Amino acid sequence: MEFDEIVVKDTPGLCRCCLSEGCYKDLSTEYPWMDDTEIYADMLLECFDVSISQHIEGPNGPNRLICEVCITRLRDACNFKKQVLDSEKKFIDMVGRGAFKTKVLLYPEQMKSESQEVAADEAEIEYLDEDVDYDDIPLNELATPSVSEDITVATLPVAKRGRPKKTMKNEKKKIDVKLKTKSKGMRIKREYQETFLERLSNIRRNILILLRYGRVIPFHWNTRGFKCFFCGKQMKDCDTLKEHTTVDHNSVDLEHFIPQRVISKDVPVKIDVTDMGCKFCNLPLSNVEDLITHIIAVHGEDYDNSIGGCVFPFNLNKNILQCVLCPERYDNFTSILGHMYKQHIFHSHICQICGLGFVDQVRLKRHISNSHVGYRCRICEKVFDAFHKVEKHKQRTHGIHRSVACDLCSATFQNNYQIKVHMGKVHNVEKYRIKCEHCPKICTTKGALVLHVQSMHSDQRFECDLCDYKTGIKWMIKLHKRRHYGEKNYVCSICDKRFGRSSNLRAHMKVHTGSTGRVCRWCRHGFVDLEGLDKHEKEVHYYSQYN
């Protein structure tokens, strides 16, 4: 197709794959097909690694459309790619199981007649002995062929016109080639294993050196909390972990322990560097690189820098966790660990769909399942790209609500975050009333405190170019500017009231559920409290009340 000759009209319905006009489907929308669903933008990316750009200007606006002809061709291409991958996987599996191994049928009968002697002479036939007595051979052995995978069988009692020697040579060559190929594969596997074991041995030595000289605390982490690196004891908070490791494991035989404890999945080892320094020199050090330099220069240890990072440094703290490699701050260890994996570690496993990197195959499979396969509602089988969207869908569509009860009263909430806010505001639980160290502000959660500190007390400030508003969070400037432009993109589906933030819309929806607030009897607009309702009725519906 000559794209230079196409005249694009300013009307909706332009296919982005062939530039034909009509009424087409959207590339990013999910459509049902057979017993499954299709998203054509994902199919283009997965099959051809092509991403269709999005432009505000043009006949489609921000929409990206595709025609039925291109959909059919795309669907065939994806099915063909899947067929090729499945066939290749099945073929490799059959080769591994020996499904194509040569089998030879051997018949104990006279092979060739006198009329084939010329052809046999050209093939350099080697004949067997003539004096063969057939009287001692059972009839069933003469009539039934035998199957053997080993073609170098013992000599059969055949006549003078025997099997050509050339055929036997060819079969022996095939077997030699197979044996050489298998031997080469085993050699490559053995070399890989030797390289892996050598690298793991160097990693273990590096970790041993760091733990021997460095004043650091190694630890493990799972969903239940912290684990002792040495004995595996489970602990809920970092202070208990530090005290336990310092007191109970002060004199561990690292030479014997490290080779048994550190395996490939444990690398890099997580360490606490809050009070890092050299044990022998009692010298405080600021980071792991300075510790390694000190160990090599002062103590003369042979630390291998070519391997890369063998440890993961963290500043363990009960309240706010500060990343040791960048200014990011988090209120829980799970979040800062995810940040470290994404930003500060080499990614050897790359997603072929979106290009994101992961440290191991498990995280890559989890990413593909969550981001490119999606979360499925078990009731209606609808697919979503995030877990919280599935939960909202269940609440709104199927009426299924997750309820978590408060331990101090009978109130129920949809998630643990709402319970923490409730415990701090209503019951004044000290744990959930976190005071800002810069001002009298009190927050109910660590996340709210981090947001407050970044917004109000951060050194990095972002300014609004229309007024004097300043904040330490860049995306809050975008929210602030909506006030200047009057943008209210969030609309209540019941009373059509518009809001500039989704949080304000969620708070407003409570007036329609009956849990709080009031609704205007004249225009059905909702309000959170009676003061707002009274003010609205006086300003807007003053004459309606007295007429």
Distinct helical segment count: 17
Q: In this structure, how is the largest beta sheet organized? A: 5 strands, mixed
Distance between the termini: 70 Å
Rg over C-alpha atoms, rounded to the nearest angstrom: 37 Å
Helix share bin: 40-55%
Which structural class fits the helix and strand makeup? alpha+beta
Strand order of the largest sheet: 9-8-7-10-13
The overall strand count is: 29
Query: What is the typical, i.e. mean, pLDDT?
Result: 75
Contiguous runs where pLDDT drops below 50 for at least 5 residues: 1-11, 104-166
Strand-residue proportion:
5-15%
Oligomer state equals single chain
Q: Tell me, what's the shape?
A: globular
Describe the structure.
The chain is α+β, with helices and mostly antiparallel strands. The chain contains 17 helices and 29 strands. The strands form 13 sheets. A 5-stranded mixed beta sheet has the order 9-8-7-10-13, with helices on one face. It has a two-stranded antiparallel sheet with strand order 1-4. It has a two-stranded antiparallel ribbon with strand order 2-3. Residues 1-11 and 104-166 have low confidence and may be disordered.
